[in-house]
Amino acid sequence: MNRIWYNIKNSFSFKKAAAFFLCLWVLAAILSxxxxxxxxxxxxxxxxxxxxxxxxxxRLGKSPLVEQQNSKEAEESRLAASDPSTGIVRFFKDxxxxxxxxxxxxFISNNGxxxxxxxxxxxxxxxxxxSILGIVIxxxxxxxxxxxxxxxxxxxxxxxxxxxxxxxxxxxxVVQLLIMYFVIFGSSSNKVLAAILTFGINxxxxxxxxxxxxxxxxxxxxxEAGRSLGLSYGQTMWHVILPQAVKNVLPALGNEFITLLxxxxxxxxxxxxxxxxxGDRIRSQNYExxxxxIAVALIYLILVLGLSKLLTLFERRLRKSDRR
Length: 324
What we know:
Strand content: under 5%
Radius of gyration: 29 Å
Helix content: over 70%
Number of helices: 13
Largest sheet: none
Structural class: mainly alpha
CATH topology of the largest domain: MetI-like fold
CATH superfamily of the largest domain: MetI-like
Shape: elongated
Number of strands: 0
Distance between the termini: 43 Å
CATH architecture of the largest domain: Orthogonal Bundle
């Protein structure tokens, strides 16, 4: 039993887990579409009744458009009733027809795919600039915190940094976003800038602790060796300590960037047309929440998997440089 559990643990990987959940989503989409296809499948009894009703109402007088629609539905019902396919083949035909109809209605006929691309661009733009701002703030605050913990200097700046980190980490990001837009940016309509500042400031609090832990993990002899070579404290920190600290904290930074990417989905609270907001708008237009939200989830999943792969390659390259 222990050997079986050991083999299961060794065979588990992030890629297999992602593929498993992706298969679950696809299976859910197929089952949902299949149920709808069965509900939408033509019935000979209802078609005969509808044909009789349409013929009766046509004698009373109808517009040509209504008559054309009724004749089209009657023709489709006649063709479906005369289809000699078996049950399983007919099921997959109806399934394919229903999926094509849903995709066309949600993403093709109303240019939903263009809206999703525009929302994706807004999401990536907010994430990119917010991550840069978060790195700058986090690196600066992390250095201040590490200097205070090693030499007890910069006490006042350390108090400010601790207060900032405590407040940002102790309040929800959506509340910070609403305060930034409706209070601080009350007279401005630049929603994207408000979102970038909010997510950048929020991420900076977490990146500060990541950098502080990375700097504190470097042996104090590194700083002493740099100072003995004639380097100043700033030069030693920039050329000796920080490069080693970045290698140590790269996995944690990668997780923070992934969290930041997914966290930008709340930007719709201030009416920014990001990826999640566009998916909700498509849902409100067609009253079908399944397909738009599944598409948004798959896009986020692809982005996260791509970012994780890039971080893995970057870590591998850094390890090769260490062996040289």
